[in-house]
Structures are given as C-alpha cells and as structure tokens.
C-alpha cells in the first residue's frame, strides 16, 4: 500500500461533525447504586477511541455507557466494562457522513453500506439485555424513531437513567 492509497482512504473518510451538528455526548454510570448522567466533551462525538477511553475513566460500579447523537438523526451507544466494549450504531449508512459512525462500523468489522436500502442498526443490539432491554426492543427503537435524541431518552428510561438524561436534554437547544 503506497502513499497514494493512504490519501485515497483519507478522501473517503467523513469530515468531523461540528458543534452545531452534535446534539449530545453523555456518560451514564452508577455510583454506589445511584444513576449518574454526565455531559462529556463534544469533541468525543468525532472520536470513538477517545470516547471509550473517557468511559474507562468513569467511576461507575459496573462500567459506563456513552451516548452520542448527531443531527438528531443517528446515535452511537458504547458500553465499557473493564476490557469489554460493546457498541451499537443506530444506522449503518451514517458511516458515510460521520466519523464516529464510520469508526463504529470499522470497530465492528463491517463495511459501510453504499445503498441506503441496506442501512440498518448494527452492533451489539443486546448490550442492555441484562438491564431489561432486549435486542428486539432495541432494534424497534432504532427503526421506529425519527429522532435520535428521543430514542436515546427511551433507551435511558428503560435502563434506569431516564431522569438524568432528560435533565440534560432539557438544557439543549434542539
């Protein structure tokens, strides 16, 4: 692989999401059993590795969850428990447009679909099965919601973080 091939790959990579395109970047974790929802640096909406590192530093009793929403259109959920990382992306076609979505597709070892008809939620859709949110319900949330922030609020509610996330969402200018 030569230098020209590397440049071609860079041309194919989506531009970073701007602050006006990023809806939210949050961490969810439990500290002494109490649910905590904390806003994270918006730059993490363009950096999956950075998001995973930030989640590893959270003081959660059983790891931490990161939620990112861009343009109220697509979301990424990452769950980090020690060395175990689970990841899901609400819409695989978003890998064409957003770095974190491309990183998620790459992390999962998938290809970004070229045809919008092939787009679907991908990754560990059962990442919250132990918290009462089975894979089929997560898939339904992804497919039925027209608003990524509302979908994340629904997920947060089902896993016990709804109040905290709703407080943060209420402060956003969406």
From TrEMBL:
InterPro entries: tRNA_Adeno_NH3ase_assoc_put. It comes from the Bacteria. NCBIfam families: tRNA_deam_assoc. This is tRNA adenosine deaminase-associated protein. It comes from Propioniciclava coleopterorum.
């Amino acid at each position: 692989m030569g230098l020209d091939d590397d440049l071609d790959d860079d041309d194919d990579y989506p531009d970073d999401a701007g602050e006006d395109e990023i809806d939210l970047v949050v961490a969810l974790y439990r500290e002494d059993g109490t649910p905590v929802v904390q806003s994270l640096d918006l730059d993490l909406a363009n950096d999956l590795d950075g998001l995973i590192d930030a989640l590893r530093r959270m003081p959660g009793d059983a790891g931490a969850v990161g939620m990112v929403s861009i343009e109220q259109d697509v979301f990424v959920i990452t769950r980090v428990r020690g060395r175990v990382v689970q990841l899901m992306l609400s819409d695989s076609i978003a890998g064409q447009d957003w770095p974190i979505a491309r990183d998620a597709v790459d992390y999962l070892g998938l290809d970004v679909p070229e045809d919008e008809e092939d787009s679907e939620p991908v990754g560990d859709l059962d990442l919250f099965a132990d918290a009462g949110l089975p894979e089929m319900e997560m898939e339904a949330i992804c497919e039925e919601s027209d608003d990524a922030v509302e979908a994340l609020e629904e997920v947060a509610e089902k896993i016990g973080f709804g109040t905290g996330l709703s407080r943060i969402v209420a402060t956003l200018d969406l």
